[in-house]
Amino acid sequence: MKPFRPRTITLRGRVLAAAEIDDVFPLFSPEGEKLWVPGWDPEFLDPPESDWSEGQIFRTREEMGEAVWVVTRLDRALHRVEYYRVEPERYVARVEVSCRPVPSARTEASIAYSFVGLSEAGNREIAAMTQQAYDAKMLRWVEWINRYLAEPETGPDV
């Protein structure tokens, strides 16, 4: 049997949000993303209440099936969080978010997704990922986040 060789890729992007860091960083929590991401509806597994904490496990419904997420690091003081997202039989993704204040009461969020294939199907998906597509995703995030910050009562109806 030929040994499996996982494909890997890391994609990096930035989001510039029109608000102070303490208002922006919580938007990258599982509960916070519900405010601006269309269709985002995490199911909290452990702990079952929606407290954002290291070790928290939740799941989401994705285009290709279910994803299980684990909060592996959370540093509220430094405005950094790391998640692992597992899509069984496809891939594992490490998601890193780091926020920093920038002039004019704005916040820059750096977001990196690192993917590791778990199967040939996952490897094919990873092979199709491009920085250009990720950049387009970051532009959508900028639009959604800033729309929410400007009109928080409207929610993510996109």
How is this structure best summarized?
The chain is α+β, with helices and mostly antiparallel strands and 158 residues long. The chain contains 4 helices and 7 strands, in the order βααββββββαα. The longest helix is centred in the C-terminal third of the chain and has 20 residues, at 131-150.
Provide a descriptive summary of the structure in words.
It contains 4 helices and 7 strands; from the N terminus they run βααββββββαα. By secondary structure, the chain is α+β, with helices and mostly antiparallel strands. A 7-stranded antiparallel β-sheet has the order 1-7-6-5-4-3-2. The model has no long low-confidence stretch (mean pLDDT 94).
Poorly predicted parts: none
Q: Average pLDDT value?
A: 94
Sheet/helix structural class: alpha+beta
Major sheet details: 7 strands, antiparallel
Which oligomeric state applies? single chain
Radius of gyration: 16 Å
SSE string, helix = H, strand = E?
EHHEEEEEEHH
Number of helical runs? 4
| Number of strand elements | 7
List keywords for this structure.
158 residues; alpha+beta; 4 helices; 40% strand
How does the SSE layout of this entry go?
Layout: E1 8-17, H1 21-24, H2 30-33, E2 43-46, E3 57-62, E4 65-75, E5 80-87, E6 91-102, E7 106-117, H3 120-128, H4 131-150
Antiparallel strand pairs: 1-7, 2-3, 3-4, 4-5, 5-6, 6-7
